[in-house]
Design goal:
This protein has 100 residues and is mainly α. It has one domain. It is built from six helices and no strands. The chain has helices at residues 11-17, 19-30, 44-53, 58-65, 70-73, 82-95. α1 (11-17) packs antiparallel against α3 (44-53). It is globular and about 30 Å long. The protein starts with 10 loop residues before the first helix and ends in a 5-residue tail after the last helix.
Length: 100
């Protein structure tokens, strides 16, 4: 995992899956089934489990991603840069009405 520490509610779980991976998988689930960057990692099963067990944080986490440091977001291993990650997060926040 990326080892980044965040300082907000539920951040210990987000740190386990990675902020960029979280946005990518959420984008796949809610917006575009053709978006598959989240699959470019060997720990997808574990991350999906953490994702599913923490749905109560999803909207809040998405909001937090918009305030994250671009350099840290760029350190992901799934081929997304910070601007793309934040664009997807903004789109999800604008369109998703049921976060559970």
């Amino acid at each position: 995992m990326n080892g980044h520490e965040f300082n907000f509610d539920g951040s210990e779980y987000l740190a386990k899956i990675g902020a960029t991976w979280f946005v990518s998988y959420s984008y796949f689930k809610h917006q575009d089934k053709n978006h598959l960057n989240w699959e470019n990692i060997t720990t997808t099963r574990f991350r999906i489990s953490v994702y599913n067990n923490n749905k109560n944080y999803h909207k809040y986490w998405m909001e937090q991603v918009l305030n994250m440091n671009d350099k840290l977001l760029n350190t992901n291993e799934i081929g997304l840069d910070a601007s793309e990650t934040k664009r997807m997060a903004r789109e999800l926040l604008a369109t998703v009405t049921n976060w559970r």
